[in-house]
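Quick question, first post here. What does this chain look like in 3D?
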Amino acid sequence: MLPLDTKAPNFTLIDSRTNTLTSLEDVTGKKGTVVMFICNHCPFVKHVNQELVRLCNDYRVMGFGFVAISSNNVENYPEDSPEQMRKTAREQGYPFAYLYDATQEVAKAYKAACTPDFYLFDQAKKLVYRGQLDNSRPGNGIPVNGRDLREAMDHILNNRPQQKDQKPSIGCNIKWK
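> Answer (accepted):
Ran it through. Tokens below.
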């Protein structure tokens, strides 16, 4: 896992929604920035998609920036191609950039392991949280509410120290080339 206090690795990738280059600087929020590694085909991501939209809509007005990145090998997983990413972003109403990491270098820089995987950086772009969205998983009956990530963002808003016990995300492995 990327160590806490690590400065956010820079990136510039194509936004599948707009076909324009988008950088970390473009998506950085005044209070903090959430970097999410997701993809189209993973049932764990499908399970949380609507909460990702709610979360972004709830917190971007408070000064948080959001970005999602897909780093999967599209040769073996064509459902994760930029064209399909654009379609998914439109269907789900993603209010955040959905970037394609063709070289997988960004996923490696962030030490992303699975989809979904979440990273929260403070206003200085220092990592303060990395881990799960919440305890909900497909089929476990726990409602999707984004509790873990929401609490971490609330800690930033209220100038409180972050929880040291951060649960790693669980999902589909990144599909490496």
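Residues 12-173 form a domain with the Glutaredoxin fold (CATH 3.40.30.10).
The longest strand covers residues 64-70.
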